[in-house]
Each structure stands twice: as structure tokens, then as C-alpha cells.
Design goal:
- The complex is a heterotrimer.
- Chain A is built from 13 helices and two strands, in the order αααααββαααααααα.
- By secondary structure, chain A is mainly α.
- Chain A has a two-stranded antiparallel sheet with strand order 1-2.
- Chain B is an alpha/beta fold.
- Chain B has two domains: 221 residues, Rossmann fold (3-Layer(aba) Sandwich); 115 residues, Rossmann fold.
- In chain B, the strands form two sheets. In chain B, strands 6-7-8-3-9-10-12-11 form an eight-stranded mixed β-sheet. Chain B has a four-stranded antiparallel β-sheet with strand order 2-1-4-5, with no helix packed on it.
- Chain C is α/β, with parallel strands linked by helices.
- Chain C contains eleven helices and twelve strands.
- The relative contact order of chain C is 0.13.
- The chains are: A mainly alpha, B alpha/beta, C alpha/beta.
- At the A-B interface, α1, α2 and α3 of A face β1 of B.
């Protein structure tokens, strides 16, 4: 076994000698003779090979709960996109009818026609409980809930991701400039104060009146204001680190603002930004639910979790129909909780203080 | 068994940290007695384990650190066996108090200085009402803060660095501890303030019959305050002796190196002495004398076997094979051979 | 004596004010000094004295609110042309106090050291850049293979040398060292000081060495200026300052230097400086006078007379 290890080849010779010394049998006299000395040898020191991202991943993987929810969210995502492929051919927007034997209300026997066959009546397949034919049942107008729910989840996630992406892009860009370029600070702060005081709901209402309601409008309306908060958040983070010595050093070296932003600031912020994005997705989905609740959501022909929850809420008072509320709520809760826990676990894992274990 | 004369006694203490799955042996079997009423200085480079060593006596090790062996005797109790916060609270502050390097981190920025001292007074001195207030004012005056009634109502940010450190000391002392640990108490302060703070601690020690333990990387600072010095390297004490013994007759090559590197000893136009290299990696087993790879005067045996303590005098011992009768005679470096005579003629 | 030496940097009545317009706080107040080519100029003062601000004002990080800074005869304070700005970036470099805070933790040493090249020598090929980084690293006694590591792999002394390599790669003429060793263990301070001395000898560098501790600057400075609350108190050749400290503040700094000698320490008398002792007034204003060649001190006429007798 090598007792003394060095990373570079140049000192390997000395290291070998030291190892030899350590393992050799000395005579009593030799033991008390001077050992060879290389003043540079100690310079090499230990090399731990620590990497920020590897340690972040390591710490994250150790968090069992977060890993569980990561799997949950991954499976949910995967499933929403694979769902159209499974052999269950119901369309989300089709209104289904059922053929059912007519029952005599008094005798509780099937009504028979002249040939002795049961009379079959075609009726709207509405409010059917989950079962073999309609896995998640049907809603009040006879649409298949299973396909509606997955299409809705797909749409809601799309809204969430789209809003989060725009949020991140605009928020980071504006936030970094706002925080780092001192000349912009005053102007941006004033602009922020003005825009931040416009209630988001009001803005959404106005936009839904002006534009044709739909997914695009919804995303546009939500993006219009949400990035402001992100920008402010990023700005505050940048202000905290912009005057650290290493940034000052970069300025003294004539490094361009662009390089300072991309090499000095963003790498430090990437963990908290990622966390914020992880939380922005469920926030946008929930926001959509709220906007639908106040009646400004996406039209009904586009299923979203908001539409589904809202539809379920309307029939909530009837115990037999509560499945129409519970199923979308469970999906919504799973997505929200998963993202929340993953986001928090990632923030913890990204903190170098937690890289010790 | 604990030494009877010692107020605090470390016995074969081993402290381990787990870091990214590896075990770091931060303290490697250290025994040290702290005598009642003395001022002991523990001197070493950063990473030598000097802070960890003393923190272990207050139950302040980081979550990934633990006492892996040995004992810490205090007042007939073995602190190394303490596990719960509740047990530690009977010691921390009450019996052993600590003054840290940065006063701002030990003070609550949202509370007035007076209230922070008052808390300690209420908790530990059993005073109430006006009597407690008077005790706070006295505590402020005792640490050399003028105009105590006005200062009582001020917040930490209204104090200068030196004044803040005085407040921290006032809080520590208000708990009436037996032992005061000062972890680099002056490193963050200006030179002129440094001397004043050290003076203050010295006075308080005499007045309140305290035992003080200083932790520092700067041997130059402790000449003034320490009765005894323990030099620590790579988790082990390599030399311990009375202040004069360590300064005027150091035995371990590491102590020589520490003394030689003091900038006060530099000669203009000449290269200053510096210790080459970096301390050993404590994740790996240290064989022999940990300082050997950086020691130009290392013997072959230093790489093979850990040296035992050789006694120089009843109060002075050092862990170096150079003190073995079989070892060649090695003189300490010229630079530090005459510290006694040098000091007086240096400036002014 | 000073006539024969070439002035590299000239600071005249420098004023740097922080705070708002309503509550201005003068961090540096009417400071004047020259730095000669090839010398080490020590600037000593406690925290909040304005010493760091002066360094940052010279390198154009802190805006100047009054007075001028001239570098090789050219004004570099206030609004300047692009060429002058380039020149300052090329020729004046800075070494920072805290080696933990002054290196970008998320970048490899390779990037950190070559950072200055990307801005000023964009035409370099990758091979040339690598070669220059390796050269800079070996100039400061580090191994070329360190280039691929992250800063946290290194000890404080090594990190400080990475910081020096980053400055050196610009081939500067003038380096502002802002307390380059105060954050380091005493045992490795000499590594950095020796390196700085060696580089000065080899390349004819000029240093402004900022410190809070007189014992440190004594052995590397040719001249030392003592600053207190934004104003210079005394300026002299370093041996002269140690032999004949005139201003009471200088004397208090000297008395506070801890000595590695227990007997001497136990008998030492601390001098405490109280600014109230001066009794300056409109009719008795403090002046900045040269009492012997190269030895300036601040004091009223009355005080200066006393100082003269002390020489």
C-alpha cells in the first residue's frame, strides 16, 4: 500500500522514495539519519476531485422523498404523452352515448319488444361512474373523463412549462441587467413599481376580453406579469453577489459585462433559479385553475385541469358524482406536491454546505 | 483517570468527521490538562484542529463530527459521553463560555446590546428587575465601555468592531463561567484594538478567577497573554510548555517553523522564512511525524513511527525524535535562537 | 532624492465620498502622495480608514469626487477616454485580501488566470492561451496541472498565488495589493510576501501595498504612509518611520505590534491614540509638512515644532 500519494508524475519519484522509506526495515543507526527533503513536494497537496454539480446530484439522490416524487413526476409526464397510444379509443371531446336495456320501473324487469328481445335505448352516457367501459367515468355531458383528464394534464403541463420558460428567460435577462448594470437600477425599479401594482387578475380579464380565449391567450396573459417577480428575485440575488471580490477582480481585468454575467453571476444563481422554475410550473398550473374558476379560462373544448376541476366543482354536492372532482384534484395535487418537494430538495442539494455527507 | 489539579482534562481524544463518505481524523489521540486559573494558548495553522478540539468541550461540533474515542473530564464528569442538547446546556455558557472571531455573528442584530447582556444575567445570576439592570451596566463598564446607560439601549451595528467584541465578552462573562475559550478573538480587529482586547481578557481573568483558553494561528499574539502554549499540527499536539519555554527554547521543528515565519522577525531585503507545502491530508492515515514531509530536518524514523512525547522539563514536552538520545544534534534556526534579546531592541 | 526617481503615480487632493447627497461620508479626504517607479509604497491604516478606497479609486472601481490621480503623467481619474481606460486595465492590476472571495468558485483555474486575456488579447489561439496560463502559474510557483482544478482545491496561500498569476498574465507595471496577506495564516504569509518581492525584482514592478499592520509592511515597503479616518497622518521612508515616528497615531500603531517575546510583551506600554488631543481649530489648522527630506507629517504649527525637536 502506498502511504504517500501525489497526483503528478514529477514528485512520484520522491513519493516512491518516501514509501520505500516508510516500509523499509532500517537499522537502528539509519533510523536516526536525515531523510531526503524536497521543499516543493508538499505543494502538491491532496486533490479531492470535488465537483459542485456531482456533489449536488449526490446530495439530491440521497433525499429519498425527493427521488420518489421525481419518479412520480417523471412517470406522470411520460404517461401523459404515451396515453394516446394505449388501446383505449375514446376521444376527450366526443360526447358518448350508451345503449342500454330499458327497465320497467315497476317490475324492475327489462322491457321486451315484440320479438322478445330487450328493448335497447340509446341515451347520453352522462355521469357514468368509473367502470370497465369508461375507466374514469364520464362527465355531465357524456364525455370520457379518462381521455379528458390526460389531455387536460397534457395541456396544463404545457401551460406550466411554457409560462415557466418565458418566466425564466425574461426574468433572468431583465433581472441580471437590473441588478448588475447600476445605471438601469433606478429606471427598472420605478417600472417594476408601476407594473407590479397592476393586479394580475385584472390584466387577465382585460386580455381575455380583447383576445380570443384559448391556450395561447392564457399563456400570454400569465407570462405578461409573472416574470416581473422572477426578475425582481434575480435582481436581488445579483445585488447580493455583484460586489464580491471576484466580480471586482473581473472588472479590473476588463472583462465585459456579458462575460461577467455568464461566467461569474449565472453559475452562482443557477441553483436558485432552477428551484424557482420548479416551483413556477405548478404555480402556473394552479393559476390556470384559479382563472378558470373565475370564469376566464380556456374554452371547454380544450380540456385543462382547470376546466376539469371547475366542472367537478359544479357537481360536488352530489356524492355519487364527486369522482368528477376528485380525480382531477388528485392529479393536480400530485403534480404540485411533486414539483414543490423536488424544488426544495434541489435547493438544499445545491447548497454547498450540504455537500459534506 | 482525570488529573486532580486540572479544571478541564482531555484524555486520548479522537474526533472524526465524515465528509462525502470518507472519514477525516481531525483530532488524533490528544491528551491535555488545563490547569485551574491558567491562560492556555493553543496555536496552529488553519485545519490543524485547534478549533474543533476546544469546541468538542462545549458540544459544538458540526453535525458530521463526533467524538470517536477518549474522554473530556470536567468537574468529575466525562463530557465526551454527553449526547443531548439538554446535557450540554448545563455546561455551555454556564461553565464554559466562548468568544468567537467575528463578534457580529455572535450578537443578535435586532436586540439592544443591553438586552442581550440582560438575558445572560437573568439566566445565570438569578437577579431580577433593577438589580439585573445594574448588573448589566456594571458588566458594560467592566469591559471598558464608557457611558454605559446610553450604550445599553444601542444596537450592535452602532458599535465599532472592537466595542462589539467587548460586548461579546461581557455576555460571555455575565454567565459567570469557569472557563472562557477565546477563538481567534482579535483576528478580525485592528492592531491597536487587538492589544486592548487582549488586555481586557487578561484583566477579567484575574478579576473573575477565570481559566482562559486562547486559540490562534499567530504565535506573536499570545506572547503577551498565555501562561502555557500548546502547539497543534494535523490534529495532534506536538509541543506544550510554559510560554517562555516555547518561545525561548522551542524543541519541535514545527514550533521552530511557526516562530520563524513571524513577519516581525523579518530582515529587510532578505527572504522571509516560510513553511513550504501544505498540511497532510487527514483523510489518509498519517504515519510517523505528520510534519515530516515539510520538515527539512526530518529523520528517517519520522516517516516510520510516531514520536512519543519527550520531556524537556516537568512543564515542557515535545513530540519529536530529535529529542531522542540517538538522534543527531540539531540546533533551532538562527532566526529564533535569540528571541529574548531581540525583542527589546526591535523598535522605538 | 525624490527628484532623481521617476514618478509613476501621482495622487493629488484625492477625495472619495460615499453616502447620499444629504448625508455625505468622506471616506478619503484630501490625500496626496507620489509613488515612484519600482518601489513598494506601503499604506497603513485600520479598517474604515479609507486605505482600500484609495486603492479602488486608483484602479477606477470607486468614483473620485475630488482631486486627481495621474498615472505616468496622464489623468486616470474621473471621465477618461477609452484608450486610457484600456491602459489602466492593462497596466494596473489588483491583488485582493480574501483569497476565498476573490476567485470565482465555479470556474476552473485555467479560466480564472486567463480571464484578463479574453478582454485584452482576444486574438490568442487556444494553444497560446494555455501556454500563457501555464507560464503564469509556474511564475507564481504553482504546477501547470493545477489549471484544470477548481479554486476550492487549494490552500489559502495557493489561492492567493492564483490571484497573483491572474494579475501577472496582464503583464502589469503597477500592482495594488489590498491586504494580500491578512486573511492568511501567519505561517504562510511569507510565501506570498517572498513571491511579491521576487516578482518585483524580476519585472521591475511597482507596488501599492495596503495593510493594517505595520510589522508586515516594514520589510517590503520602501516608503510608508499612515492613514487615519481618510487623512494621511505621516509619510516617510520605512526605516525612518520606524526610527522616528512623529505622529501620535503612528506611535500607537508601533506600540501595538505584538512581539514574539513574552518578557518584552509583559512590560510593554500600549500607547492609545485619541484624536481629541490635537485641538485643531480655524486658527490652528492641521498642515501637511515635510519635516525632513521625504518625511511628511500632519500637524498644527505648534505640533510640528514639537515634532521637529523629536527628529
Amino acid at each position: 500500500m502506498a502511504l504517500f500519494r501525489y497526483k503528478d508524475s514529477k514528485t512520484q519519484a520522491l513519493a516512491d522514495h518516501l514509501n520505500e522509506t516508510a516500509q523499509r526495515q532500517f537499522t537502528q543507526e539509519e533510523l536516526f539519519q536525515f531523510a531526503p527533503y524536497d521543499p516543493d513536494a508538499g505543494e502538491r497537496g491532496g486533490y479531492s476531485g470535488y465537483s459542485y454539480w456531482r456533489s449536488t446530484l449526490r446530495a439530491f439522490r440521497k433525499d429519498r422523498t425527493a427521488m420518489f416524487f421525481l419518479c412520480v413526476i417523471a412517470l406522470t409526464l411520460l404517461f401523459t404523452f404515451l396515453e394516446p397510444l394505449i388501446p383505449y379509443d375514446r376521444q376527450p371531446n366526443t360526447i358518448y352515448y350508451t345503449e342500454r336495456a330499458e327497465i320497467n320501473l315497476f317490475t324492475r324487469q327489462p322491457v321486451l319488444d315484440e320479438n322478445g328481445d330487450p328493448v335497447v335505448k340509446v341515451s347520453l352516457a352522462k355521469d357514468l361512474a368509473p367502470g370497465k367501459e369508461f375507466w374514469f367515468g364520464t362527465n355531465t355531458i357524456g364525455q370520457d373523463l379518462w381521455s379528458q383528464i390526460w389531455a387536460g394534464t397534457r395541456n396544463s403541463l404545457a401551460i406550466g412549462f411554457a409560462v415557466a420558460c418565458v418566466d425564466a428567460l425574461l426574468g433572468i435577462l431583465v433581472g441580471v441587467l437590473w441588478g448588475y448594470v447600476r445605471k438601469l437600477d433606478f429606471l427598472f425599479t420605478e417600472l417594476y413599481n408601476v407594473f407590479d401594482n397592476v393586479p394580475q387578475t385584472l390584466l387577465v380579464i382585460i386580455i381575455s376580453y380583447i383576445l380570443r380565449p384559448g391556450m395561447g391567450t392564457m399563456i400570454f396573459a400569465m407570462c405578461l406579469t409573472s416574470w416581473l417577480q422572477t426578475a425582481r428575485f434575480v435582481r436581488n440575488q445579483v445585488v447580493i453577489i455583484r460586489d464580491r471580490d471576484y466580480n471586482l477582480a473581473s472588472r479590473c481585468l476588463g472583462t465585459s459585462t456579458w462575460h461577467i454575467i455568464t461566467r461569474n453571476l449565472l453559475p452562482y444563481l443557477v441553483s436558485i433559479i432552477t428551484m424557482r422554475m420548479a416551483l413556477a410550473i405548478p404555480a402556473a398550473i394552479n393559476n390556470e385553475v384559479f382563472i378558470t374558476y373565475i370564469g376566464l379560462g380556456v374554452p371547454l373544448e380544450t380540456p385543462t385541469l382547470g376546466n376539469l376541476v371547475e366542472a367537478g366543482r359544479k357537481v360536488m354536492s352530489e356524492a355519487a358524482l364527486r369522482y368528477q372532482l376528485f380525480i382531477p384534484v388528485i392529479i393536480l395535487a400530485t403534480i404540485t406536491i411533486s414539483f414543490y418537494i423536488i424544488g426544495n430538495a434541489f435547493a438544499d442539494a445545491a447548497d454547498p454546505k450540504n455537500h459534506v455527507n | 483517570m482525570p488529573n486532580k489539579d486540572a479544571i478541564l482534562s482531555f484524555e486520548d481524544l479522537e474526533i472524526h468527521f465524515t465528509l462525502r463518505g470518507q472519514i477525516l481524523r481531525a483530532i488524533r489521540g490528544v491528551s491535555l490538562d488545563v490547569a485551574r486559573g491558567e491562560a492556555l494558548a493553543i496555536v496552529g495553522e488553519s485545519g490543524s484542529g485547534k478549533s474543533v478540539f476546544t469546541k468538542s468541550a462545549m458540544g459544538l461540533l458540526d453535525a458530521n463530527g463526533s467524538i470517536a474515542g477518549g474522554h473530556i473530564w470536567y468537574d468529575g464528569k466525562d463530557l465526551a459521553a454527553y449526547r443531548t442538547e439538554k446535557e450540554w446546556l448545563t455546561i455551555r455558557g454556564k461553565e464554559i463560555a466562548m468568544v468567537m472571531q467575528d463578534p457580529m455573528t455572535s450578537l443578535n442584530p435586532l436586540k439592544t446590546v443591553g438586552d442581550q447582556i440582560l438575558e445572560a444575567v437573568l439566566l445565570h445570576q438569578g437577579l431580577r428587575g433593577e438589580a439585573a439592570r445594574q448588573a448589566v451596566l456594571e458588566a458594560l463598564a467592566a469591559v471598558g465601555i464608557d457611558d454605559a446607560p446610553r450604550r445599553y439601549r444601542q444596537y450592535p451595528h452602532e458599535f465599532s468592531g472592537g466595542m462589539r467584541q467587548r460586548v461579546v465578552i461581557a455576555i460571555a462573562v455575565a454567565c459567570r463561567p469557569k472557563i472562557l475559550i477565546c477563538d481567534e478573538p482579535t483576528t478580525a480587529l485592528d492592531v491597536t484594538i487587538q492589544a486592548q482586547i487582549l488586555d481586557l481578557i487578561k484583566q477579567l481573568q484575574k478579576k473573575l478567577d477565570l481559566t482562559t483558553i486562547y486559540i490562534t494561528h499567530d504565535l506573536g499574539v499570545v506572547a503577551n497573554v498565555a501562561d502555557r502554549i500548546a502547539v497543534m499540527y494535523a490534529g495532534d499536539i506536538v509541543e506544550v510548555g510554559r510560554c517562555e519555554e516555547v518561545f525561548y527554547d522551542p524543541k519541535h521543528p514545527y514550533t521552530w517553523a511557526l516562530l520563524s515565519s513571524l513577519p516581525q522577525l523579518g530582515v529587510k531585503g532578505q527572504e522571509l522564512y516560510s513553511i513550504k507545502g501544505t498540511p497532510p491530508n487527514l483523510f489518509q492515515e498519517v504515519k510517523g511525524d505528520a510534519f515530516a514531509p515539510r520538515n527539512p530536518r526530518a529523520l528517517n524514523i519520522d516517516f516510520v513511527e510516531r514520536p512519543p512525547f519527550f520531556e524537556v522539563s516537568p512543564t515542557h514536552k515535545a513530540r519529536t525524535w530529535l529529542l531522542d538520545p540517538r538522534a543527531p544534534k540539531v540546533e533551532p534556526p538562527e532566526l529564533i535562537r535569540h528571541l529574548r534579546q531581540q525583542g527589546g531592541s526591535r523598535h522605538v | 532624492m525624490s527628484d532623481t526617481r521617476e514618478t509613476l503615480l501621482e495622487v493629488r487632493d484625492l477625495q472619495v465620498t460615499f453616502g447620499s447627497r444629504r448625508h455625505p461620508f468622506p471616506a478619503v479626504d484630501g490625500v496626496s502622495f507620489d509613488i515612484y517607479k519600482g518601489e513598494t509604497f506601503g499604506l497603513v491604516g485600520e479598517s474604515g480608514s479609507g486605505k482600500t478606497t484609495i486603492g479602488r479609486a486608483i484602479i477606477r472601481v470607486n468614483p473620485v469626487s475630488g482631486g486627481t490621480v495621474r498615472y505616468q503623467g496622464e489623468i486616470i481619474s474621473g471621465k477618461v477616454s477609452r484608450e486610457v481606460d484600456r491602459k489602466v486595465i492593462q497596466e494596473i492590476q489588483m491583488i485582493f485580501q480574501d483569497p476565498m472571495a476573490s476567485l470565482n468558485e465555479r470556474a476552473k483555474v485555467d479560466y480564472i488566470v486567463s480571464e484578463g486575456l479574453t478582454a485584452t488579447a482576444g486574438h490568442l489561439s487556444e494553444g497560446e492561451r494555455k501556454a500563457r496560463v501555464e507560464q503564469a502559474l509556474s511564475d507564481v510557483g504553482l504546477l501547470p496541472e493545477f489549471a484544470s482544478r477548481f479554486p476550492h482545491e487549494f490552500s489559502g496561500g495557493q489561492r492567493q498565488r492564483i490571484g497573483i498569476a491572474r494579475a501577472l498574465i496582464m503583464q502589469p507595471k503597477f500592482i495594488i495589493a489590498d491586504e494580500p496577506i491578512s486573511a492568511l495564516d501567519v505561517s504562510i504569509r511569507a510565501q506570498v510576501l517572498n513571491l511579491m518581492a521576487k516578482l518585483q525584482k524580476e519585472r521591475g514592478l511597482t507596488y501599492l501595498f495596503i495593510a493594517h499592520d505595520l510589522s508586515v509592511v516594514r520589510f517590503i515597503s520602501d516608503r510608508i504612509a499612515v492613514i487615519h479616518k481618510g487623512k494621511l497622518m505621516e509619510l516617510a521612508e520605512s526605516e525612518q518611520l520606524f526610527a522616528h515616528p512623529l505622529h501620535p497615531y503612528t506611535r500607537s500603531l508601533l506600540s501595538a505590534i505584538p512581539m514574539p517575546d513574552p518578557v518584552w510583551e509583559r512590560n510593554k506600554q500600549l500607547l492609545v491614540y485619541d484624536p481629541a488631543q490635537h485641538h485643531y481649530s480655524e486658527s490652528n489648522p492641521p498642515l501637511w509638512k515635510e519635516l525632513e527630506p521625504g518625511h511628511f507629517v500632519r500637524g498644527s504649527e505648534e505640533e510640528l515644532d514639537i515634532y521637529r525637536k523629536m527628529l
